[in-house]
Amino acid sequence: MTATLLSEKTLLEIAEHEGLVLESYLDSVGVWTWGFGVTDKSGHKVGRYRKNRSTIERAVEVFEWLLRDKYLPEVLRAFKGRTLTEAQLAAALSFHWNTGAIGRADWVKSFLKGQREQAWIEFLYWSKPREIITRRKAERDLFFDGRWSGDGVVLMYEEVRPNGTIRWSSARQIDIRDEVRAALARNGGRA
Predict the structure, then answer these.
(1) Is 84 a domain residue?
(2) CA-to-CA distance for 125 and 152, rounded, in angstroms?
């Protein structure tokens, strides 16, 4: 049976790839973003956090809600009821959270046809912008080899400049396991 529960491990894995910013900022391609990589495309309006910091709890709550209600159903549809391990589900969710492309990714189609080696290669077709390559390799390693990288510690960027860019030197590591557990407990982790 396909894992249909969002696990703590899954949320922590994706969060570690994203990092956390509690105020709206412009991402690497100029899109207003907030929290763990949330944009308006998700259905959650991030403009409300422009020069208006949220709490860590709020960022985790929205992250969990969007993964559960929007992204997880799309991932499950893309895999057409196939059995996925927790690691495969987490990797596919991370990929979809970052690209929004689970329904059109060649690697998914190849995997469904049983073409594992081809899918492994195609996973890295989604490596633009260049700074995403490390993440994509980690997702691929998680999906195909079950190698987790998230441990509950994420980089939080404390400062957004007036022009909307992040001051990279403002980063510090924080442990979000308690906030993730609380968000999952509120929703029973159910999809």
Answers:
(1) yes
(2) 28
Task: Tell me phi and psi for residue 188, to 5 degrees.
Answer: 65, 10
pLDDT tens digits for 158-170? 999 999 999 999 9
Task: Tell me the pairing of strands 171-175 and 38-39.
Answer: unpaired
| CA–CA dist 167, 129 (Å, integer) | 20
Q: Are 44 and 66 in contact (CB under 8 A)?
A: yes
Partners of residue 175 on adjacent β-strands: 153
What residues make up the domain containing 150? 8-187
What CA–CA distance (Å, rounded) separates 128 from 147? 22
pLDDT in tens, 72-82: 999 999 999 79
Whether this model's pTM surpasses 0.90: yes
Within-domain flag for 34: yes
What pLDDT digit, counting tens, does each position of 100-142 carry?
999 999 999 999 999 999 999 999 999 988 889 999 999 999 9
CATH number at residue 52: 1.10.530.40
Query: Token digits for 32?
Result: 């207003």
Instruction: Give the CA angle between residues 116, 147, 74 to the nearest 5°.
Output: 60
